[in-house]
Amino acid sequence: MSNSNRAKEYSAKNETLGNVGDVLAFIGHRPLPVVRESASIEEIVNCFTQSTYSRVIYVVDENGALAGAVTQEELVKHLFIHYHDEYLDKRSLLSQAVSETAADLMHNERLHCTASDELAALLTDMISFHQDEVPVVDSTNRIINDITMMDIIRYCASSGIVPV
Questions:
Q1: With 130 labelled, which of 38, 54, 110, 124 sits at a CA distance of 20 to 30 A?
Q2: N- to C-terminal Cα distance for the chain?
Q3: Domains along the chain?
């Protein structure tokens, strides 16, 4: 099949990717990398080292609702601050150096989705915002699972949605 025919076939199937819940059913349940806002840096490190797939730790508030996320990059900046380029923003590095909890390190503008969201829309957002992992939340904003770009690729390949 030619590339142009594959592109047309993929474009037609792209409209029927399904929803996030379809991918959740495909990947099943797995331990989520989650810590409370009050978690220490040591707890964040432990959570990262215990996760087999994630480069993001989700931070939840006292009610268990998504509050933000700590990325592996942010943790590396915090742990190895003395190795950073001297031309980096000094205020940002100082903030990283004095961080003591997940709330100090986290960003709260993280993309998230629900199980009923269209997979095509989520995929578009993940690509646009350069996010390889997205938490899936329920109606109370509690994390029920997460989806990685690799999960989506595996789901689409196994479903025959993308040409392999």
A1: 38
A2: 12
A3: 11-158 (3.10.580.10)
- Measure the CA–CA gap between 23 and 154, rounded to whole angstroms: 9
Could you give the percent of the chain with pLDDT greater than 90? 48
The rounded distance, in Å, linking the Cα atoms of 120 and 134 is: 14
Listing DSSP states for 28-63 in one string gives ------EEETT-BHHHHHHHHHH-SS-SEEEEE-TT
Neighbours of 125 (CB within 10 A): 15
CB atoms within 10 A of CB 46: 14
Dihedrals phi, psi of 68, to nearest 5 degrees: 170, -160
Average pLDDT over residues 143-163: 90
SS3 70: strand
The average pLDDT across 9-18 equals 60
| pTM score of the predicted model | 0.75
User: pLDDT at position 90, please?
Assistant: 53
Dist. CA 128–CA 104, nearest whole Å:
26
Q: Positive or negative, the Cα torsion across 100, 103, 104, 110?
A: positive
